[in-house]
Design goal:
6-stranded parallel β-sheet; alpha/beta; Rossmann fold; single chain; 1132 residues; 35% helix; 8-stranded mixed β-sheet
Length: 1132
């Protein structure tokens, strides 16, 4: 049967394979699943209540039996084995000193006796204390000291939501006690651990404890479990609470549970752990420490600022979380006002630091720029040190947050919610809170997760406000109305209600104590049953669960498969586990482990503040122009590992590791995390039995094969989460761009209609040099400005002769320009007053501008730098290939007598008196300048016409393009020659280039042999062997943008140019048969030009309808002028 790819409405993928004759009828869009609600959870809550009653009866009976046993047992009975074991395990206390000094300022010490009494008498205790009160470090030590004093064995575990916190707190306790880390106190996180047989106090992440409890199926490993920061309500913490509560009901359990937080909703946790027996409530006790700060803190809302600040207040709604432009301006104005406050309160001897809470990196950038503008206009003498704080910002930039500032400098920290609890800056006096955050939310219809803007909860706002008032009086400015703040939720929505549940479902299946709904239904906030159903369906689709549970079909359950067991065993997302599994099947498991680890670690590449575009360019190159994040991670990691193992970073005179990482926007710390995670995953895979094949049976892929295999593996692993590119309407795009090529052109809008555009070309280009060095700017008299990037790969950024582009047919320069829009980089051009601008433009351009002086006048000026391209009536040309970059990009000469004469004349003129040629002056060392340069071939040197493609002032070199041949060369700037007056007057300088840029028509690189999308070296070699410096016949398909798309025929197989080419096999088709190429559709403009050429052949009269002339590459290149300076301009 023949298969074809068809589009199915409502599908998550671009298409499915169906038999060609199958009609695409009756297929309807799948409607979103209805919410099934949370009523299912009531059943399991009732089961828990019954379990509590039965457990109580068992405990009462056990108590009576023990009384009888105690009377009946004689004095000579052997001692209890567990007591003997306990004695042995308490001997460890003798090896350590327990003498230490306590910090009397810690609030927690006041409550020590009460805390220990409640822990002794109750199975669950809740402690609520403000940040910095000492609960995380001191409560575990109270328990340890108590057990040592009573010679009782203990094994205490304390969980932290973040691995960094677990490690740092363990070290802090050891430092306080004078013990070595890993001795009596240790830590264990996913990739690292410091513990021993002596360890009695272990700090770890929630995930580590969860894995231990699931494996053990009870709590007996620990005497005390302390769950810290429980207010964060992440998935692992909520699931840990489910497991702990479940195992507390096991008869004979003696493990004590302590829950701690600074902003906990105590009523909710009390209700969750309350036992209800025969109508009685047995509630866990709550110990609440005082929450007063050391110094007074004043709170302000928008309402209280209306009459004090001369600015329009932002209008905010509960249903639309956002920051308005005047919100940024208000924050900047407040910072300026702080100068007056400090002058009154500190007599200007101290400038309090400011902490501004923003939801994301983009908002940080906007706030940064707004503050810079405000400072430039401020009359205050103080300086501002702006410190962005975000996970993608480099470590060096983050360190600035903790550095002291000079006396006349105010530190302003622009941070996301990372500054809520993870950092402490002691000199913060002011907090400006936009009351916003970004949270992960899973779309119910698509199961896709994304970060979405949301209002912060009241508990988060309180946590943020807690950053001040510690060492001095503080002020908190919440940039929302007081009424809006009252409507905020008390706590942040727990992850279990808004994030994917697939990992929790796999853990629930590992517990093997019921269906996932029975376990997740026992959560403090049970998820909607439809969410459980959807995530189970996703796991079945991934192969982690069977369709059946105990051989019966169940849409709410399924038996765990081997794939599911692997996913549950690995400490990464199920999709990443699937990537490793498929990689094992395709013999590329090492590469897949690296990609999976790098994705899991996140932030492998750094994004220095205000260098996002440079970082994006670097990442594109690491991805080998595949635009794939996993491929970029793999490339960077493999090169770094090679340099480390080969010792290249340690060689004298070489580039150090830190400098190398900084240059290529890589975070060494993240790479080292990838190493640890790679080691951990490889170890776990070995335990499961997934060992890579070695020896003769191992499949070894060639480089081009591996690139294709990795694409297949990635596609299989992340199904069905694909980005689908909509069909591009090229015709509409060409229309919007005024007939320009949409694959090389972008346009800017809102250019002033009363300004002559050509006057500001250099100012406009300055913003886009990071995209590509070769570009032209054009205008059409409207508010649009068009930027046309060079399609010939002569960019300084992509100095590559293989014709590489980004995926598809979009030029890389265009990719970068579009990325600028995504990054919302503002483009601001300073302009002259309209009358001054008109006068200046007339002086420079004269009648080269149209009557409205705002665009190029095609009627009055002869185009310059225009290649002698064939008109519509020409379909066949004899040509000689002069330079080859790739089959998709080469240059040729028209092989006739007239062209040969022009070629000889130009070369004679240039080399007639070579000694009279003067050096090119420094003011002309810039892109696009026409000049003369030498070229040596077979020992003979001569001068040729060139243009400068890119200037590198650091090395004193320039990349030049030989316009009559098509080749490039790097040459020293002082070796370039200028055109003398006689060569300009004779027309040598402005004579159109003789080299015609070409591409093979209607073909593209074979996806099988060249999966990266560019022509392989083998294809270039074969093409060159056929055509380099050889005559051939070109059948013209189209001419667009000075590029000629052709079908080539070998000259030695043709009798004459005018013969019927239809009877001969073209090289294009021969290239396809050889496997180097495959058929491809030409772009819209090329197809349109081809239609016009076909019409011209059928009806010569139609030639009169079309003009054969072409626009010059850059009509303004001939004018040398200084653009208006910043001082001259009065408006922006």
């Amino acid at each position: 049967k023949q298969f074809q790819k068809i589009k199915i409405e409502g599908g998550q993928t671009d298409g499915h394979l169906l038999f060609a004759e199958t009609p695409n009828k009756g297929i309807k869009r799948i409607m979103p699943r209805k919410e099934l609600g949370k009523s299912y959870a009531r059943k399991y809550q009732e089961e828990d209540e019954m379990e509590d009653i039965l457990l109580r009866k068992v405990q009462e009976k056990s108590s009576n039996d023990n009384d009888i046993l105690e009377v009946a047992t004689s004095i000579g009975t052997m001692p209890n084995i567990s007591d003997l074991l306990g004695d042995q395990m308490t001997q460890v206390y003798e090896n350590y000193s327990f003498n230490h000094e306590i910090d009397p300022q810690l609030l927690i010490h006041t409550y020590k006796d009460e805390i220990m009494e409640e822990i002794e008498q109750n199975p669950v205790v809740i402690i609520k204390g403000p940040t910095g009160c000492g609960k995380t470090t001191q409560v575990p030590q109270y328990i340890l000291d108590s057990c040592r004093s009573n010679n009782v064995h203990c094994n205490i575990v304390v969980t932290q939501p973040r691995r960094i916190a677990a490690m740092s707190i363990a070290r802090r306790v050891c430092q306080e006690r004078g013990w070595n880390i890993g001795s009596l106190v240790g830590y264990q996180v996913a990739l690292e651990k410091e513990k021993s047989d002596d360890t009695r106090l272990l700090y770890c992440t929630s995930g580590v404890l969860l894995q231990i409890l699931i494996g053990k199926q009870d709590l007996t490993n620990f005497t005390h479990i302390i769950i810290d920061e429980i207010h964060e309500r992440d998935n692992e913490t909520d699931f840990l609470l489910i497991v702990v509560k479940k195992f507390l009901r096991i008869p004979g359990n003696r493990t004590k549970i302590i829950l701690m937080s600074a902003t906990i909703n105590t009523d909710k946790f009390v209700n969750y752990f309350t036992k209800r027996i025969n109508g009685l409530k047995l509630e866990p006790p709550v110990i609440e420490l005082q929450t007063k700060t050391n110094f007074p803190v004043q709170y302000y809302y928008l309402d209280s600022l209306v009459d004090r600040i001369p600015i329009t207040m932002p209008l905010l709604k509960l249903a639309e979380p956002r920051i308005e432009i005047n919100g940024y301006e208000l924050a900047a104005l407040l910072v300026e006002v702080f100068h007056t406050i400090d002058a009154i309160e500190h007599e200007a001897k101290f400038l309090g630091s400011v902490l501004i809470f923003l939801p994301g990196l983009h908002e940080i950038e906007v706030m940064y720029e707004t503050l810079e503008k405000r400072l430039s206009k401020s009359k205050n003498k103080e300086k501002w040190m702006l410190c962005p704080l975000h996970s993608t910002v480099t470590s060096d930039e983050q360190i600035k947050v903790f550095q002291p500032t000079p006396r006349d400098t105010r530190k302003i920290i622009l941070a996301t919610n990372i500054a809520e609890s993870s950092i402490t800056v002691p000199d913060v006096k002011y907090v400006i809170d936009f009351c916003l955050m970004k949270i992960q939310i899973q779309e119910r219809e698509t199961s896709y997760s994304s970060l979405q803007l949301s209002w912060a909860s009241k508990s988060q706002a309180i946590q943020r406000a807690g950053r001040v008032g510690r060492v001095m009086p503080g002020r908190v400015y919440r940039l929302v109305s007081q009424n809006l703040y009252k409507n905020f939720s008390d706590d942040c929505s727990p992850e279990i209600l808004r994030c994917p549940l697939d990992t929790l479902i796999l853990k629930a299946k590992e517990l093997d104590i019921g269906p996932p709904s029975a376990i997740l239904g026992r959560a403090m906030d049970p998820p909607d049953l439809s969410n459980i159903q959807t995530n189970i369906l996703n796991l079945k689709e991934m192969g982690a669960l069977l369709l059946t549970a105990n051989e019966v079909y169940d849409e709410f359950d399924g038996d765990l498969t081997f794939i599911g067991k692997v996913m549950a065993a690995l400490p990464i997302d199920p999709f990443l586990s699937k990537l490793i599994i498929i990689g094992h099947m395709f013999s590329c498991v090492e590469e897949c482990i690296i990609m999976a680890c790098a994705i899991a670690v996140k932030s492998l590449f750094s994004t220095p503040f205000k260098q996002q575009l440079e970082a994006y360019n670097s990442k594109l190159r690491w991805a080998n122009y595949s635009a794939s994040d996993p491929i970029s991670y793999l490339s960077a990691y493999k090169l770094w590992r090679y340099k480390v193992t080969s010792g290249q970073f340690k060689r004298s005179g070489g580039v150090g590791e830190d400098n190398w990482a900084s240059k290529y926007f890589i975070q060494i710390k993240s790479l080292k995390e990838v190493v640890r995670l790679e080691t951990e995953i490889t170890s776990r895979l070995k335990r499961i039995g997934l060992i890579p094949t070695v020896g003769a049976n191992k499949v070894k892929w060639e480089d081009h094969e591996l690139a294709l295999i990795l694409k297949i593996v990635l596609a299989g692993a992340f199904y069905p989460n694909y980005f689908l590119r909509n069909q591009i309407d090229e015709k509409e795009a060409v229309k919007v761009l005024g007939g320009r090529d949409p694959f090389t052109t972008v346009y800017l809008s809102n250019f002033p209609s009363n300004q002559p555009g050509p006057l500001y070309i250099d100012a406009i280009k300055q913003y886009f040099y990071h995209c590509g060095s070769n570009m032209s700017v054009s205008f059409d008299g409207s508010s649009k400005v068009y930027l046309i990037f060079d399609s010939t790969y002569r960019s300084s950024i992509d100095r590559d002769t293989s014709g590489r582009r980004a995926p598809g047919t979009i030029s890389l320069a265009l990719y970068r320009a579009i990325k600028m829009r995504h990054l919302q980089i503002p483009i601001t051009i300073s302009v002259l007053a309209p009358l001054d601008a008109r006068k200046r433009a007339t002086e420079i351009f004269g009648d080269s501008l149209s009557p409205n002086i705002y665009c190029w006048n095609k009627r009055k000026s002869k185009p310059v730098n225009q290649t002698l391209l064939p008109g519509l009536g020409t379909t066949v040309l004899p040509v000689v290939i002069t330079h080859i970059n790739s089959p998709g990009h080469f240059y040729c000469h028209i092989n006739d007598e007239a062209m040969s004469d022009r070629h000889i004349w130009i070369n004679m003129q240039l080399n007639h008196q070579p000694d009279s040629l003067k050096k090119l002056s420094e003011d002309k060392w810039k892109n696009g300048t026409k000049c003369i340069a030498s070229f040596t071939e077979e020992g003979h040197s001569a001068y040729y016409r060139t243009t400068i493609s890119n200037v590198d002032m650091k090395t004193g070199t320039a990349q030049i393009f030989y316009i009559d041949y098509g080749n490039e060369l790097e040459i020293k700037l002082d070796e370039l020659k200028d055109y003398p007056d006689q060569l300009i007057e004779s027309g040598v300088r402005d004579e159109p280039p003789l080299a015609i840029e070409c591409t093979l028509a209607e073909i593209q690189p074979s996806a099988r042999l060249n999966p990266k999308g560019y022509w392989s070296q083998d294809s270039v070699t074969v093409f060159s062997s056929y055509f380099r410096d050889k005559r051939c016949i070109a059948l013209i398909y189209s001419v667009v943008g000075n590029v000629m798309a052709v079908t080539l025929f070998k000259h030695d197989k043709l009798d004459r140019v005018g013969c019927d080419l239809s009877h001969h096999l073209s090289f294009n088709h021969e290239f396809i048969e050889q496997g180097f190429a495959e058929m491809a559709e030409e772009p819209y403009l090329s197809r349109e030009n081809h239609v016009m050429r076909t019409m011209a052949q059928k009806s010569p009269e139609s030639l009169k309808m079309y003009s054969p002339s072409y626009l010059p590459d850059d009509p303004y290149a001939q004018f040398q002028f200084e653009p208006p300076s910043e001082k001259e301009c009065q408006t922006k």
